[in-house]
Design goal:
Type Iii Antifreeze Protein Isoform Hplc 12; 3 helices; 2 domains; five-stranded antiparallel beta sheet
């Protein structure tokens, strides 16, 4: 009898827990489900866009301003940026407007080099040891001249004749009588005489301008 009374008292002191019934008409429930579904579809869409690949041109070596692009096709995932690069299905025609480093993708706007409006092509005799290794068409060089004769036994100092000149042609396989190679450079018409005089009165050095030091568009 006593146990029955204690049990009755304890039961009356414990608050009854009510089960919450999920109501399918609850607006918050439907809004939460809608957000979850939209997030799932958005994630799947972005994932599929990231997996799409395209084949574009990649520079085979360092390419200078005015050079003819030497490139190989490569397949990459660019996403929304794929329209900014030249697809491998389009031929590489023209010359570069700005430098592209080896291994970089070639942008669509990089082609379309505009040569000097009033230019002259000057051929320089250059000792192979005073020119960049693997000198090629399109390379950018500074032209220095060291006088061959200086009075009074004074050591001749090189003088910068032209800065950032484009190499139009380099006959590296043909050596002249004096052991020089012929390098054709493109200079403004009003500077041709100065360059010819520097080549006749001294020794020419061609100093390569690295890709990182060439102006970009």
């Amino acid at each position: 009898m006593l146990n029955s009374q204690l049990t009755s008292q304890l039961t009356s002191q414990v608050p009854a827990k009510r089960l919450r019934i999920v109501r399918w008409r609850d607006l918050r429930l439907w809004v939460g489900l809608a957000i979850m579904v939209v997030a799932m579809f958005a994630g799947a869409f972005l994932l599929s866009r990231g997996e799409q690949t395209t084949t574009v041109w990649r520079a085979s070596s360092d390419l200078s301003i005015g050079s003819v692009p030497m490139a190989t096709p490569v397949t990459v995932a660019l996403g929304e940026a794929q329209d900014q690069y030249l697809p491998a299905g389009e031929p590489l025609t023209g010359k570069l407007r700005w430098p592209v480093a080896a291994g970089d993708l070639i942008p669509r706007g990089a082609l379309g080099y505009a040569p000097l409006l009033d230019a002259r092509l000057v051929t320089l005799p250059v000792d192979p040891l005073h020119a960049p290794v693997n000198l090629a068409t399109g390379d950018i060089v500074d032209i220095w001249s060291t006088p061959a004769e200086v009075a009074g036994g004074i050591t001749a100092k090189p003088v910068l004749v032209f800065s950032r000149v484009t190499v139009a042609e380099a006959a590296v396989d043909t050596v002249g009588i004096g052991g020089e190679i012929a390098v054709v450079v493109e200079v403004p018409a009003d500077g041709a005489a100065q360059l010819v005089a520097a080549a006749r009165s001294g020794f020419i050095d061609l100093v390569s301008v690295p890709i990182t030091s060439q102006p970009t568009s």
